[in-house]
Predict the 3D structure of the following.
Amino acid sequence: MQYLDMFLKESLRLHPIAPFGPGRTAQESSTVMGVHIPKGMKVRCDVYSIHMDPEHWGPPDPSLFCPERFTAERVAKRHPMAWLPFGAGPRNCIGMRFALMEAKMTLACLVKKFSVETCAETQIPLVHVARCTVQPEKAVTVRLTRRHVVVNNTEE
Ligand code: HEM
């Protein structure tokens, strides 16, 4: 489950489904890194750029899929707001833990019974389109092959 958690976090870093989600209205005027933000201005953060910033995510190259970026040691050294698929702060996603648990349960049940491979119909590289959330352009088609696992002398 530890590696599955790292795998899922890396998937959401490379493919955040709600990168336009975290937005706030300035409650008071301020200046952040030389940029003046007047009271009442709506501000959104650019999750894609933060998730691809080598200062937080390199090495290896942030465009590569690498779950090892999420080992406890590496997470402890990283800025707490470098990973934002669920936003951050007091108004972050209320369903984050539920969504992560549900995804991990689904994946664990799936890979227990099936091997998952790309096939001729798999769109590579994956193309994103922005609708209400960011989605794959086409259905993600893969080949599932049933695993033969023997548990307590019973073939599953
Ligand atoms: C992979 C799945 C999900 C992703 C990536 C996601 C992402 C987000 C993001 C980016 C925000 C904005 C956070 C911010 O402004 O800081 C948000 C807010 C929210 N999400 Fe999710 N979400 C997911 C699943 C869910 C689920 C399963 C639920 C409910 C069971 C949920 C309920 C909410 C609610 C109620 C808010 C508004 C929170 C507030 O304004 O205080 N989300 N989500």
Observations:
- Residues 2-112 form one domain.
